[in-house]
Amino acid sequence: MAPIKVILVDDHAIVLQGYRRLLEKQAGIEVAAEATDSKTAYRLYKEVQPDVAVVDVSMPGRGGIDLIGQIRAWDASARIVVFTMHADAIYAMHAFQAGARGYITKSSNPLLLAEAIRDVFAGRKAISPDVSQELALRRLDGDASALNALSPREFEILRLLLDASPPAEIATALNLSPKTVANYHSLIKQKLGVRSDIELLYLGLREGLVAPPPAG
After folding, report:
1. CATH of domain 146-206
2. What is the mean pLDDT of the chain?
3. Are 4 and 119 in contact (CB under 8 A)?
4. Which helix (H) or strand (E) holds 10?
5. pLDDT for residue 133 is more than 80
6. C-alpha angle with apex 146: 101 to 64, nearest 5 degrees?
7. Which of these CATH numbers, 3.40.50.2300, 3.30.1490.20, 3.90.70.10, 3.10.350.10, describes 4-140?
């Protein structure tokens, strides 16, 4: 049987090197390409046409969730595993909504990534235990985050706005016009029930999308 052909996408070169070495030691998995940004990842995906794409969420410019949507628009059968530091349920929910089939955190046992690749290749979903627990707790608590109202594209634009990316930079990263970004900005605030960017920042802090300033 031919090995599972994988593309790795992460903006940290050291992470790429480490997980390439890990995966190449696993029977039946071949790392066919790697990329450190979404633009290169999309181009390589079309060239290599891997069996599974492993994608980080947080990258400069177009992030992983938007990349997932872009890949799925080109290849509706794409099998994608998110591999990220974010254990927040809201990230996982938007990743799956965008079309991911797996969600594994970098704090998990490294071998879970290889297992997730095999599971997703076989048509199954894969979620690391910490994220699975977070999703279950949200359901038990009846915690319906306001962020659930956003589409994956809106969530990605919100992430960039909270990261203080200028609107023109967001427009370039997502191949949108500045006017479209401004319209998204207004729609996001409307959907989240906030009136200003300060309120949007506070919401990002409450939802864990923005790291609080260090004490002292």
Report:
1. 1.10.10.10
2. 87
3. no
4. none
5. no
6. 35
7. 3.40.50.2300
